[in-house]
Specification:
This protein has about 400 residues and is of the alpha+beta class. The protein has helices spanning about 10-20, 25-40, 45-50, 140-150, 155-160, 270-275, 285-290, 340-355, 370-375, 375-385, and strands at about 55-65, 75-85, 90-100, 105-115, 120-125, 130-135, 165-175, 175-185, 190-195, 200-210, 215-230, 230-240, 245-255, 305-310, 315-320, 325-330, 335, 360-365. The protein has two domains: about 25-290, Clam (outer membrane lipoprotein receptor (LolB), chain A), CATH 2.50.20; about 305-395, Ribonuclease Z/Hydroxyacylglutathione hydrolase-like (Metallo-beta-lactamase, Chain A, 4-Layer Sandwich).
Length: about 400
């Protein structure tokens, strides 16, 4: 038997190569390496860059996690078919949504959104069935523009051009190992998971603020990859919020660089003439409300609160789409219902302080957990209990 020996220098080289193969390369170089491999798995960087436009037709269902029978349930709110036409070069998108709402009331739910650069419009039938274009809500538009950056054909480009690009340790989920690339997109923290065996992008998650839940993982999950003109694209997609499915869709037709009518992204003049009112808050909450066909228009806009006395010491706080009730006690106030989002609650708190400055809000009652009743409760929690009214043995600093 011959015993082979390696000189120390040679052995060090072999050991380094073994370690290099088993341990993922981290940092920005590791991230770019993972992104390059993902691009090759999808058909190549050049082929991906050649996709300047897409038309995607899908069918599926939407779900709402804060409208279930129990707090940890989701409820189906619609079934739909949808055609999305995108021009990546001009940051333009046209969404033709045709759905059937199942909750909170059954009936048709159809609309057309058009975004071209910084302008957007919404065409949806009013209560009388009349179609009229209006300026797209700034938050709804901002969320749609964000979504352009995580379309499967665009997510690798977005990551490569982003700040804070980094590769962190691999992660195993349900027995599958994923390479994890992180970056920032317009101030939002993003995590891209790439299947370590196929090198295909599998999940992309943005961290955003939810009115009720605070920092929230907003995730797209892809599967069923198929070849479309030499490019591999997913044909099944789930959208999740903190792990709960809020939308499930299957692609029925995909066209890369389709012929598009010249006026496909034209914003109707009446919509352009309307002022843009509100903040462009990137939040899936706005899109979730749109999927239910219910109100969200006050979000990110100045709040109007009017207090009407309906009985001695009982005030109806109205002025928006959802209201609260303020009940005056001997030395404090109780608020019933904290709907929608914290800006609404802060406006109600301010109005209560102005009307009854000597009496702090000590209790908030919500009749049930649905976010149109509880979505603004964080503002009351941040306000904190009035420490001067509490027993000395239980005094503490304000809640944060």
């Amino acid at each position: 038997m011959k015993i082979l020996s390696l000189r120390p220098v040679a052995f060090s080289v072999v050991l380094a190569s073994i370690v290099g193969c088993s341990a993922p390369q981290t940092g920005e170089p590791g991230a770019r390496r993972a992104l390059d491999a993902a691009a090759e798995a999808m058909g190549g960087s050049e082929a991906l860059r050649a996709i300047q436009a897409q038309r995607l037709t899908s069918k599926g269902s939407s779900f709402e996690p804060m409208q279930g029978v129990q707090p940890d349930d989701t409820r189906q709110v619609n079934s739909f078919s949808e055609t999305v036409t995108i021009d990546f070069g001009r940051s333009a998108v046209r969404i033709a949504f045709d759905g059937q709402r199942t909750y909170p009331a059954s009936g048709p739910l159809s609309f057309t959104e058009i975004i071209d650069g910084q302008n957007g419009s919404l065409e949806q039938a009013d209560a009388a069935g009349v179609l009229s274009p209006a300026r797209l809500h700034p938050s709804r538009q901002a969320a749609r523009r964000r979504d352009l950056n995580r379309m499967p054909a665009r997510v690798l480009t977005t990551a490569n051009q982003a700040s804070g690009l980094n590769r962190v340790p691999d992660r195993a989920i349900d027995g599958v190992t994923y390479q994890v690339v992180t970056y920032e997109d317009a101030g939002q923290a993003v995590e891209l998971l790439i299947d370590a065996s196929t090198h295909l992008p599998a999940r992309v998650a943005y961290l955003e603020d939810d009115p009720l839940q605070g920092d929230t993982r907003n995730e797209w999950v892809w599967s069923d990859w198929r070849d479309v003109g030499g490019i591999r694209l997913p044909h099944s997609e789930e959208r999740r919020l903190n792990g709960l499915v809020i939308r499930s869709a299957t692609l029925t037709d995909v066209q890369n660089n389709p012929a598009t009518a010249t006026n496909a992204f034209a914003i109707p003049a009446p919509a352009l003439q309307e002022p843009e009112v509100g903040e462009p808050i990137v939040s899936e909450w706005t899109l979730r409300r749109a999927a239910m066909g219910v109100g969200f228009q006050d979000y990110g806009r100045p709040q109007n609160v009017e207090l009407d006395m309906v009985a001695p010491g009982v005030f109806h706080a109205r002025g928006g789409t959802h209201h609260s009730l303020i009940v005056e006690m001997n030395d404090h106030l109780m608020v019933i219902e904290a709907p929608l989002f914290e800006e609404r609650s802060r406006a109600v708190i301010t109005a209560a302080k102005q009307k009854l400055p000597a009496k702090p809000i000590r209790y908030v009652m919500v009749t049930h957990h649905h976010n149109d009743h509880s979505g603004g409760i964080r503002a009351y929690a941040a306000e904190g209990p009035p420490s001067s009214r509490r027993p000395a043995s239980s005094r503490s600093s304000r809640a944060s």
